[in-house]
Amino acid sequence: MDITQTIVQEIVAQCGRHGFVVSNSLAHFYLMAQLLTEEKDSNMSIELPPDRIEALVDKSVKHLTQSDCPSLETFKLQASVTTMKQDQINKTRTEGVQHQAKSQQLMQEICTKTDAKQVAGDMTMYALHESHLFASTNDLVQKETMTALESVMPKASITPFIAQKFEDKHKQLEELWRIVWGIRLFNKKSQKGGAGIPNLPEDTEQLLQTSLATCRNHLQQAMKTAFHYQVVLSTPSIQLTDARRQLLMDEYINRKQFAVYLGNIQKLLVDRAQKFETLKTTWEELMDQLKSIVSQSVSIPKSAIYPRFIDLSDSWDAFREVWTDASNCKKILDLVVAYQAPYQPTLQQSDVEAALESQAPEPVPNRGNIAQEVANPQVNYLPDMEQSMPLEFNGFCIPSLIDKGLLLDGKKDEKAPGFIHLPVNNTYYAFSSERLLKAFAGDPYKYLSSTLLDTCAAQTELIHLLGMQNELPRDIYLHGTRTATKAKEVITTDQYCQTGHIPSYKDHNYQWNEWELRRLALKVADLRTKRTHHTQTVLSHTRRDNDTQTYLPKTQETQTAQSKATQPSKKVQYIKGLRGQPNQRVQVVKMEFDE
Fold it and tell me: What is the H or E stretch that residue 205 is in?
């Protein structure tokens, strides 16, 4: 049995006895981070003895009950962001399932009912539900929807709709609500209606602009602060004790994690902003086309305008998707910004100024010479790389962490020494200097082995910072209590159902005894010598002049099966008018056939 929740509850209870309120998600997050180097099975599960579990609980309680601790604040930030992202995914999935279930229910009611008034009312409810206005309390919303629905499907067309097949109704309803919604959107743009419809394009644009501005300001400040920590920690002339260096390192990792989250949010917001601009252009073009069609003609053919309304509805759905993504990014941004100053920084301004003064300018690397010196066939050297390509370890330079003990950013600008592509796992790596790139290219598995896991296990905040959370276990079992079960073998076969007559293959004359077979063979051979010969015709068969014969032989003319006069007539009734026009009457037709 998985005892993860039991351990988490014990950690939370002990922290509560010390006067600290710790959430289950934070306790679970910190507990799993301590098990990076544990041996895992194929299901990413581990087994721990009781003494190891007690040690983990004590260590977790000791760390989670600290005050003004940069390392703990980093864990809180990571746990909060991870939990919120998962909650957003679960919420989106749940809302989608509920919306789809309600849509199927309404569609089923529409397709099964036969009363025209009830079908028209359910169609209105279906259009409101698909346009996400089902819960609106404004009566004008329902009235405008009914008006748009009647313009597309008049009351006289509902009866033929009821007579259609279920598949045809389903397809027509999908197009119907989109056309109705497109009409309402066009009326809102033309200021002729649109009650209850939000100003989604304008609200989305404002949300993206304000979120991007906030994110950029905080990201710029975070990168500047992290750079100050980096130059102080990497300057040999600044003398630091081990305790002070470790404290500055914890603060530096906290600022790095803060900046990484802001950078990821900024990428998402920029991507959504670009998508919004494309949608906005398409939206305006559709509106202009609809205005041109409506203003030029009095009688507008359906084939010319209905597809435009459907495209307008699809564009609105795309706007809604961008709005949802931007809202989720804004929530995560507000959560991350709340951790802007979670502890009292110990970095001194005098140390920063001294480190900046002693810092030498960085030379621009010669990528042509680097390409010639990198001669390992296991790796590929790339002087440049597209910005959209994902970098392993969130773009950090792993050799700097292993060799120097300080995690540095991999350079991606013109001062970058280049990138390394590892074809084995199709991953790309960035580096902070030419020397570290050459060291990694000479022996990449030196930095990707257990050494990296041990380094991250010693400072567990690096696990999520480097994107290595997939290496953490999922379940914890008490040692010796887990029974291994063999996975069931799955065999795929083809089967079919017999729909016709199944012939019998049983041979009732089959003999397995060899002596019986010999006896039957001799019997058949003996019968061949006792055949009789006679010649008879069909007319002469059983026709003999014999006084002992009681009944006279029958003639062919008296056989009933050959006489047509004795067969009765066949009467059949048919129902006429079941198909065709709706106003056709149902009649019963009687017919008689002579055999």
Answer: helix 200-234
**Tokens found for residue 284:** 């305006």
Judged by phi (left if over 0) then psi (alpha if -120 to 50, else beta), residue 297 lies in: beta
Q: Do 2 and 477 form a contact (C-beta atoms < 8 A)?
A: yes
SS3 397: strand
Q: How many other CB atoms are found less than 10 A from the CB of residue 57?
A: 18
Both structure tokens of 209: 């602009």
Distance CA 169, CA 111 (A): 7
In angstroms, the CA 1 to CA 48 distance is: 12
Q: With 80 as the cut, is the pLDDT of residue 90 above it? A: yes
For 439-504, give the DSSP string. Answer: HHHH-HHHHSSHHHHHHHHHSTTHHHHTT-GGGS-SEEEETT-PPP-PPPPP---------S----
Q: How far apart are CA 6 and CA 24, in angstroms?
A: 11
| Helix (H/G/I), strand (E/B), else coil: 557 | helix
Strands 475-478 and 45-48, by their bridges, are parallel
**What value does the mean pLDDT take over residues 194-211?**
93
Angle of the 166-189 helix axis to the 302-337 helix axis, nearest 10: 70
Instruction: Determine the residue type at 473.
Output: P
> Residue 487 has what DSSP assignment?
P
Q: Kind and range of the H or E element at 380? A: strand 380-382
Rg (CA), the chain: 41
**Is it the case that residue 436 has pLDDT exceeding 70?**
yes
What is the three-class DSSP state of 196? coil
Write the pLDDT tens digit of every residue in 258-305. 999 999 999 999 999 999 999 999 999 999 999 988 887 667 888 888
Question: Which pLDDT score, from 0 to 100, does residue 75 have?
Answer: 95
- Among 391, 385, 394, 373, which Cα is nearest to 442's? 373
Cα angle at 256 between 255 and 258, to 5 degrees?
A: 60
Cβ–Cβ < 8 Å for 400, 436: yes
Q: Are strands 427-430 and 419-422 parallel, antiparallel or unpaired?
A: antiparallel
Tell me, what amino acid is at 475?
D
**DSSP string of 96-134, one letter each residue:** HHHHHHHHHHHHHHHHH---HHHHHHHHHHHHHHHTT-T
C-alpha 289/C-alpha 285 separation (Å) is 6
Residue pair 74/461 in contact (Cβ under 8 Å)? The answer is yes
**Which letter does DSSP use for residue 234 in this model?**
H
Listed in sequence order, the residues at least 6 apart from 30 whose beta carbon sits closer than 8 Å to its beta carbon are 11, 60, 63, 64, 75, 79, 460
Model pTM?
0.78
How far apart CA 401 and CA 439 sit, in angstroms, is 13
Structure-block tokens of residue 567: 């067969």
Task: Please count the residues of the chain.
Answer: 595
Distance CA 407, CA 345 (A): 19
Residue 54 has pLDDT above 90, yes or no: yes
Q: Kindly state the tokens that stand for 478.
A: 């008490």
CB 203 within 8 A of CB 319: no
